[in-house]
Amino acid sequence: MKERVPPGQVVTNKFPVLQYGEIPNISLENWAFKTSGDVEKELTVAWNQFLELPKAEITADMHCVTKWSKLDNKWEGVRFKTIYDLTKPKTSAKYILAHSFDGYSANIPLNIALNNDVILAYKHDGQLLTAEHGKPVRLVVPERYGWKSAKWITEIEFLNKDKRGYWEENGYHNNGDPWKNERFKWQEECPQK
Ligand SMILES: Nc1nc2c(c(=O)[nH]1)N[C@H]1C(S)=C(S)[C@@H](COP(=O)(O)O)O[C@H]1N2
Ligand SMILES: [Mo]
């Protein structure tokens, strides 16, 4: 049977807050979500329009590479697949790079992003996101370490070549699958460790 948490992780009941910089204060009037890169149709979606997109709800665990895991988070928002269908990526698009308001970024292959559980969430456990957890919208990628779940998301760029995000550039693993213990960049060279 599959273990409940990936190797090396410890369950916490708190909801830790983790980011590399300051928590941004984003005004909903000025916020917009965009798509760019290899797409047929670049989208710009204002906050009130974002709330009108088809809603999705998932329950997922979050595994931070610093070893805490928070189980059974209920996220509500818009499936990445919905954005994908609206923006119509070109066949050349194979990767996405999520960009955040704080300058942060995180990359994942398009086929992972298309999993049913990948969503752009605006609610956590029934409440609109608080500033520290990504208000107004964050990405949630349950099958990867938490750093891929970019908070304060503003843009998704579609790319034909993979481009490393902030942590993937600064020492963490490009793939970041917690079940494979893919924590650090150096493991990409010697995956057995
Ligand atoms: N924009 C942005 N998103 C981010 C981060 C960040 O530094 N900036 N940190 C990531 C990390 S390392 C983790 S584990 C999760 C933590 O989410 P939480 O603070 O809501 O618990 O957010 C991720 N999203
Ligand atoms: Mo993390």
Describe this structure in words.
This protein is mainly β and 193 residues long. It has a single domain, classed as Oxidoreductase, molybdopterin-binding domain (Sulfite Oxidase, Chain A, domain 2, Alpha-Beta Complex). The protein is built from four helices and eleven strands; from the N terminus they run βββαββαββαββββα. It has helices at residues 47-50, 80-87, 110-113, 166-169; strands spanning 10-11, 32-37, 44-46, 56-63, 68-79, 95-100, 105-109, 119-124, 127-128, 138-140, 153-159. The strands form two sheets. Strands 1, 4, 5, 8, 9 and 10 form a six-stranded mixed β-sheet that branches. The longest helix is centred in the middle third of the chain and has 8 residues, at 80-87. It is globular. The mean pLDDT is 96. The ligand Nc1nc2c(c(=O)[nH]1)N[C@H]1C(S)=C(S)[C@@H](COP(=O)(O)O)O[C@H]1N2 binds next to loops.
Structural class: mainly beta
Low-confidence stretches: none
Which kinds of small molecule does this entry bind, naming each only once? the ligand Nc1nc2c(c(=O)[nH]1)N[C@H]1C(S)=C(S)[C@@H](COP(=O)(O)O)O[C@H]1N2, molybdenum atom
By DSSP, the count of extended strands is 11
Total number of distinct structural domains: 1
Terminal CA distance reads 23 Å
Q: Please write the CATH class name.
A: Alpha Beta
Largest sheet: 6 strands, mixed
Strand-and-helix sequence, N→C? EEEHEEHEEHEEEEH
- Name the helicity range: 10-25%
DSSP helical segment count: 4
Radius of gyration: 16 Å
